[in-house]
Amino acid sequence: xxxxxxxxxxxxxxxxxxxxxxxxxxxxxxxxxxxxxxxxxxxxxxxxxxxxxxxxxxxxxxxxxxxxxxxxxxxxxxxxxxxxxxxxxxxxxxxxxxxxxxxxxxxxxxxxxxxxxxxxxxxxxxxxxxxxxxxxxxxxxxxxxxxxxxxxxxxxxxxxxxxxxxxxxxx
Length: 171
Description:
Shape: elongated
Number of strands: 3
Largest sheet: 3 strands, mixed
């Protein structure tokens, strides 16, 4: 929920900011019609590619998915405006600047939200680790060191014995 709201706020800020820049440079223009189309498209698409909630995505993969979704979403919007023959009524400058702002804002907002959730202990899913003891210890240590992945080791199954996760001092 927080990621979805953060994404929508970031996109809205990018679109409103780009419209303001366009208005300062070229005079008043009504609110672009594509703004209402872009927000629901983002949410639907982010859910479809598992960017929301994003558990299990490393920072590089999350950035890649965010960038590809932004490029695809804004590209779809531009194509829709062209094929609907409304591209003359919508500012390409506004659309382009909104894309650039979004490419900067969304990753920053998502990083801040994830850091806050990790600090509050609200980020992640419980994970049971199965495997051979030295491998499971390395996996548990990695998951603890990389809390942003969103997997919280709660138990380890080793040689068909169930135990709690090894303490952070065990190797």
